[in-house]
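User: I'm new to structure prediction. If I give you an amino acid sequence, what do you actually give back? Let's try with this one:
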Amino acid sequence: MASGESVGTGFAWLGFALTAVVAWGLYGILLHSGQAGMADPVNGRYKAFLFVGVAYFFTAILAPLGWLAARGGTSWSFPATGMLWSLLAGVAGAAGAFGVLLAFGARGTPPVVMSIVFAGAPVVNAVVALVLQPPAGGWRAVRWPFFAGILLAALGGCLVTLYKPNPAPPPSRSAHPAAAAGVPAATPGRAGEERILR
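Assistant: Good question. You get back a string of structure tokens that encode the predicted 3D arrangement of the chain. For your 198 residues, that looks like this:
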């Protein structure tokens, strides 16, 4: 590998990839729940984003520092190129999280918003990767299934947006409290019979 790191054999990479799938799959739902839990229709999204940053501080700063410190012989040199690209990656990730929050604030639902994000993000990733690292032979060497995948991803995001499932209606309150409690309500005919018997 170009980075010089060794990779174990087997399917460990697949387990890590599936971990990322689960984490990012839960991301939108948890973020929407956090925004709603702030109980602030105006600034709730910004408060939620603030705590996303707090979580990033623990998971993306303290955890790597502890991991590097625990490993013996760690080199603490940080080349400028690596720092620049890493900072841009962090800004892109934070901007994406903020965009998701803004979409929720504009009444976008987690299933639709995250489906569009996860359908479009691989397309952007693939295209930008090809621009930064052109394939051998240029764009003409790219096979048609690549472009078909881009179209299918866009089609998937469009279908999810157009045919999103509607939320269940709120439970209706019964006009007769006794009936809601399981007690049969008296009908007008039965009430009249009770008056005659009396």
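You can read the tokens as a compact description of the fold. Here is one thing that stands out. Helices lie at 12-37, 44-70, 80-105, 110-132, 144-162, 177-180, 188-197.
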